[in-house]
């Protein structure tokens, strides 16, 4: 009897799996011909749906090898499991949608909820979003999925000047409309935000990404005031998309139990982003530039910059688009990324000499895509970084190979 039950269970499981494989599971593929805005990236992902079940799942993975050296000193061959991200979305009901994004970094050393929001649609131009939202400053913060990029590393300006994948608990409105070749979208959010760590951190400089280490920002705001993030974007089918965004608010704890500790100090960030695919050549361009302003206390030294700026530009050129190595829709690309950040814009008060603390990088790349959802990429980094005194820059170079894929 025991063996009979086991055989029946195996037979049932096999039949069920065949039924699921053939009729229930459907993968929502990325439509590479569809025109959209960066604000659509949160839902513009491949998901697995199970028949009429209102829940869909998906995700992506990134892993790489690198051999880099700085001024002749290298850590040798390094293998890294950068991240694995899981998506879960649900159409709860009419005009009600939920999406969450859970990220595991460095083999599970860090686990974070990057996005978990409920969207309520009243009108295409008026939607409510609440939960953990992705603040739309620039373009990369919203559209950061690894398989969409030809480079193993995220842009330096987006990760070391702006806090890439910067999300907070909050609420806001967003909407989008079309008219012939034009598309317009906007987003406006109030959320938790920065704290004193942006000027009190292990980097010993003004460093906005330090605020990501504070997990309590999802429960309480250091200043007790909201961070405002606003963005408008316009796309033309020929001329591409341009976005203008702002993020700002009080960052310091200026009072405690009604006792004034300091004046209110603001951080303001302005950004412009652009992307387009040039006709005929199909050259893809994407980039952004941002300006950061921080009110620094007079008691701080000049190594803490009150002004920062930087940005990046990616140029991707398909050179082969045909059946290759058994894949029907494979693409071979040549690409190059240009990056620059100045963490301390200005001159020394005593001498008038220019303050250093800046970095630039050029990264040529070759990438191969067996499908739009998977990329193999080989990069070479050429990087120069100056200290605050503008001494001879540290020289970094080396190869990086990585893979990234949705699943």
TrEMBL record:
Superkingdom of source: Bacteria
Keywords, alphabetical: Signal
UniProt-listed Gene3D superfamilies: Porin
Name the record gives this protein: Porin
Annotated signal sequence range: 1-18
């Amino acid at each position: 009897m025991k063996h009979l039950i086991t055989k029946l269970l195996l037979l049932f499981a096999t039949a069920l799996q065949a039924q699921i494989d053939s009729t229930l599971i459907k993968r929502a593929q990325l439509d590479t011909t569809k025109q959209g805005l960066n604000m659509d990236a949160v839902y513009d992902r491949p998901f697995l749906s199970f028949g009429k079940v209102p829940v869909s799942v998906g995700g992506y993975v990134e892993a790489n090898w690198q051999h880099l050296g700085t001024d002749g000193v290298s850590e040798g061959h390094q293998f890294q499991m950068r991240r694995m991200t899981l998506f879960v979305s649900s159409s709860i009901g009419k005009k009600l949608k939920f999406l969450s994004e859970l990220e595991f970094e460095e083999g599970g050393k860090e686990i974070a909820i990057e996005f978990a929001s409920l969207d309520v649609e009243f009108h295409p131009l008026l939607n409510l979003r609440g939960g953990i939202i992705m603040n739309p400053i620039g373009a990369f913060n919203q559209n950061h999925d690894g398989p969409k990029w030809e480079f193993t590393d995220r842009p330096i300006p987006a990760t070391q000047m702006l806090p890439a994948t910067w999300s907070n608990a909050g609420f806001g409105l967003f909407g989008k409309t079309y008219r012939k070749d034009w598309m317009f979208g906007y987003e406006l959010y109030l959320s938790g935000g920065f704290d004193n760590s942006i000027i009190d951190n292990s980097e010993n400089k003004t460093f906005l990404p330090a605020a990501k280490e504070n997990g309590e920002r999802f429960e309480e705001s250091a200043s007790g005031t909201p961070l405002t993030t606003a963005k408008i974007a316009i796309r033309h089918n020929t001329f591409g998309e341009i976005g203008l965004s702002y993020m700002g608010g009080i960052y310091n704890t200026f009072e405690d139990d009604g006792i004034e500790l300091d004046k209110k100090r603001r951080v303001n960030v302005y950004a412009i982003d652009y992307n387009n695919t040039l006709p005929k050549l199909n050259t893809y361009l994407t980039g952004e530039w941002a300006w950061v302003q921080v009110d620094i206390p007079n008691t701080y030294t000049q190594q803490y910059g009150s002004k920062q700026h930087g940005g990046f530009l990616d140029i991707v050129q398909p050179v082969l688009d045909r059946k290759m190595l058994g894949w029907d829709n494979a693409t071979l690309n040549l690409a190059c990324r240009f990056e620059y950040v100045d963490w301390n814009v200005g001159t020394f008060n005593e001498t008038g000499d220019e303050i250093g603390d800046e970095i630039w990088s050029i990264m040529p790349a070759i990438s191969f895509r067996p499908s739009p959802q998977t990329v193999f990429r080989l990069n070479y980094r050429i990087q120069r970084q100056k200290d605050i005194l503008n001494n001879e820059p540290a020289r970094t170079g080396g190869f990086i190979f990585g893979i990234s894929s949705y699943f």
